[in-house]
Amino acid sequence: MEWLSKYRFGFDFSGLVLFLLVMLPNFIWFAVPAQNDVLRAESATPIVDTVASVFQVLTIACLCFVINKERSQLRFSPLVIAAIVCVAVYYAGWASYYLGIANSLVIIILTIPPCLAFILFAADRKNIPAALFATVFVVCHLIFAMMNFISR
Hints:
Structural class: mainly alpha
Helix content: 55-70%
Shape: globular
Strand content: under 5%
Number of strands: 2
Largest sheet: 2 strands, antiparallel
Strand order of the largest sheet: 1-2
């Protein structure tokens, strides 16, 4: 458990910013439904959804409140740039969705890039707990997408 000594509790504003950037399209979607809104269908995977929600909360909590003492100053490193690209791809997926495109590719774009953004950002911040929780989240989120929208 020596690795735990590398961490402290604190507040990482950049983790909160990433979370809000990823959630922004969801907030819009809650308020303004898309024309071909397949995402509002009842889920066929409620247990997986619950596990995904728990690990999403744990991911965000770690990104915002768990700080590795050995991390470097936040900068535009390759990992941070890759996380930003993931968010941009995710936004493009939402734009496509709102244009009425709800095919498998769009569903995958709404599923994987935001999770990868969390993992990449956690890796940059040397936040292993956040990266581990995000990995479980991405697996559950992918199962949800596959079972509810792609393999139907």
